[in-house]
């Protein structure tokens, strides 16, 4: 392999570029309105083909050595480059798999903690309701004793029992408020995300994939404003068209004959 630094690029004859420019100007000047003019244009076309051939040969004389050097370099680095790309893909897949599993576990653990906190809040609310009911029942019992004492003429006892009933209701209300406030403070501790590794980061990327091609086609058929979402498979359509020609049954496809001008170098 010849060292790249030793390759000398020889400047092509500028007459090639000048003749190409002149050929374009000549072609634009043609007005084919007779058989003679068509014949002249056809002869000019063969000259252009010859010029194209010469130009391509000159180009390849310059690019072929460069292409050979590039191919050799690419071949030299292809194997280790492929190994490294495979290694990168293997490790990225393994890391992503592990990360997804850890995130799944983190979400599950967080959900479990949230549920435990919810249950504890519900327990405290139920306890508060139970204590409130018990306090009211006890106050009602004491109030009934107070009324009985009053009917018996024991005014002092009745007054003491009424005060005790009021105190019991207030005490119960204070206990209920304490339990309710405590319930509002019950929150689930946050499960810490996975520790990041220096030099390696993970980011969320939205991706799109087609899961049902037929459903997509039906959607576009019903919503033609999305027609640009579908691209015709022209290689496959051309294959069918060339095979069946005018008998091609595909709706929306026209198979027709066309004239193609071919020319050889003079």
Describe the structure.
There is one protein chain. The chain is mainly α. The protein folds into 2 domains: 12-184; 213-247, no CATH class. Helix content is 69%, strand content 0%. It is built from 5 helices and no strands. The chain has helices spanning 14-29, 35-151, 155-184, 213-222, 234-244. Helix 1 (14-29) packs across helix 2 (35-151) and helix 2 (35-151) runs antiparallel to helix 3 (155-184). The relative contact order is 0.08. Residues 1-5 have low confidence and may be disordered.
Number of domains: 2
Q: Could you spell the SSE succession in H and E letters?
A: HHHHH
Please indicate the percent range of residues in DSSP E strands (runs of 2 or more).
under 5%
Report on the biggest sheet.
none
Alpha plus pi helix count: 5
- The portion of residues assigned to helices is 55-70%
Form type: elongated
- Strand element count: 0
Averaged pLDDT? 89
What ranges have pLDDT less than 50 throughout 5 or more consecutive residues? 1-5
Overview in brief:
The longest helix has about 120 residues, at about 35-150.
